[in-house]
Amino acid sequence: MSSSRRRNSEEQVRLVYKGRSWSYPVVTGTEGERAVDISTLRRDTGLITLDPGFVNTGACSSAITFVDGERGILRHRGYAIEDLAEHCVFLEVAYLLIMGKLPNRQEWQRFSSLMNQHSMIHEDMRDFFLNYPERAHPMAVLSAMVVSLSSFYPEIEQEPMEEVPLDITATRLLSKLRTIAAFSYKKSIGEPFVYPSYRMSYCENFLNMMFSSPVNDYWPDPVVVRALNLFLILHADHEQNCSTSVVRFVASAGGSLYASVAAGICALWGPLHGGANQAVIEMLERILREDKGRVDRVIERAKKKDPRTRLMGFGHRIYKTYDPRARIAKDACMKLLARLGLQNDPLLEIALELEEKALNDPYFKERHLYPNVDFYTGIAYRAMGIPTNMFTVMFAIGRLPGWIAHWMECRKDPTQKIARPRQVYIGETARPFIPMDQRP
Ligand code: ACO
Questions:
Q1: 154-158, 180-184, 198-202, 223-227 — which is least confidently predicted?
Q2: Residue 164: which pLDDT band, with cuts at 50, 70 and 90?
């Protein structure tokens, strides 16, 4: 377990408070990052820490993903994102994240065939889709369907985790989430559902379930299939981000994989997190429609500190340099659009101009605000024919292996406690109670 790989160094941090002092050990991770272990702080001193947004707080030790936001490094299980994006398909990265190693040929065949075996969802779940209004946001449908899986497959919930091979649990959810996502789209456009096919790969299957219909003999374009694999890889994990922390929170209370992932989907939906890819396209469309392409206006508005006019797809809690995923996404997006003959997409032109101007603007420079992974992914998904309200669903499909890996790591960690932050109370202090008939 990862916690056993962190080192207690000789270093100590001394806290002096009201004439007394205490020492707290500095623990060091395998990449050299250091943290003060304050787990006995309150017991020792009566103090708690206050850190809104957990800007300085490590919630766990983890062996899944390493991010160095100052140097723009992202590695999954030790492998650079650049290598994984170039050489792997999405499911290989999913396997890596969940199982901790890249699959050999035999493991790969088993994983792929399990993926096919578990791709269908219970026929009765179709009724759920049919009862949603057509305008329902696919993220709402996705989270509800994931939590509903536990009712349709209760045996999965009841099996003690160690008795179910990890790859079976993982493939069940990975495979079904993709089917649910495509069904939610078909429902929203009023077309019949398309079932998964054993003849197709993971990404081909998804595209086929999205775009084929009884009147359209569709076969996924290999260029689009490759691009989809790449974009899903870029989303696959990003250590203790908002949605993954939510998954770990639910897991820490003993919550099931399905409940934890459904909660993670809801957290991802927010526009400051995974919902940013939808917000980016809406922003670019607004610039084109209302600002007549005047990028300068948007940059000036973004500096006004109004959360509603922030430059979406820009900035990141961890990255203070170019997000390595954004670099790969930009390159892949431009190649994809060129291959599809869409290189003159006006939204791409606006995005490129916006990026260039923002990166040369002192406001963005001083605050180290760079494009994040969401800035170019929406333009690429749009070119693939994926509708805007499905962009965050795409992110969720990509992030699922990370959520599963973190859920499993959390559940297996003997040092894990129920997640339960404290607070500094700032409300009314003890007040005399006045019965209703005596209140003025
Ligand atoms: N546009 C304009 N100003 C910004 C932006 C932005 N996109 N992002 C941050 N800033 C400014 C803040 O106003 C703040 O300025 P100040 O220091 O003068 O007060 C400074 O930069 C630091 O910003 P914080 O909000 O403190 O940074 P934080 O780490 O809390 O937030 C976040 C990170 C939420 C990603 C933020 O940059 C943002 O809102 N970006 C736009 C939404 C977005 O693209 N989200 C996707 C993130 S990637 C992901 O989740 C997959």
A1: 154-158
A2: low
**What is the per-residue pLDDT across 14-50, written as a single tens digit (0 to 9) for each?**
999 999 999 999 999 999 999 999 999 999 999 999 9
Q: For tokens 């994989």, what's the residue?
A: 257
- Amino acid symbol at 19: G
Do 215 and 235 contact (CB within 8 A), yes or no? no
- The yes-or-no answer on residue 122 being catalytic is no
- Does the pTM surpass 0.85? The reply is yes
- When pLDDT is cut at 50, 70 and 90, the band that residue 163 belongs to is low
User: Is 437 in the active site?
Assistant: no
60-106 pLDDT, tens per residue?
999 999 999 999 999 999 999 999 999 999 999 999 999 999 999 99
Output the CA 314–ligand 1 centroid distance in Å. 7
| Rounded-to-10 torsion of CA 388, 74, 254, 176 | 40
* Two tokens, residue 308: 């509603």
Give the residue, by CA position, lying nearest to ligand 1 atom 46: 273
Residue with the smallest CA separation from ligand 1 atom 16 is: 367
Residue 168 burial (10 A CB sphere; 0-12, 13-18, 19+)? middle
The C-alpha atoms of residue 381 and residue 345 are separated, in whole angstroms, by 13
Is it the case that residue 397 has pLDDT exceeding 90? yes
User: What residues line ligand 1, using a CB cutoff of 6 Å?
Assistant: 53, 241, 272-274, 276, 302, 305, 310-317, 367, 369, 372-374
From the alpha carbon of 318, which atom of ligand 1 is closest? 29
Position 185, amino acid: Y
Query: Which domains are delineated in the chain?
Result: 6-51 (2.20.28), 59-418 (1.10.580.10)
Work out the number of other CB atoms within 10 angstroms of the CB of residue 143: 22
Residues 6+ apart with CB under 8 A from 280: 312, 313, 351, 374, 375, 378
DSSP 207-241: HHHHH-BTTB-----HHHHHHHHHHHHHHS--SS-
Average pLDDT for 150-171: 70
Gap from CA of 85 to ligand 1 centroid (Å): 26
Give nearest CA residue, ligand 1 atom 26: 317
CB atoms within 10 A of CB 389: 16
pLDDT of residue 1: 40
Distance in Å, CA 365 to ligand 1 centroid: 13
Ligand 1 atom index nearest CA of 273: 50
**Cβ contacts of residue 83 below 8 Å, gap of 6+?**
none
Least confident of 73-77, 150-154, 315-319, 326-330: 150-154
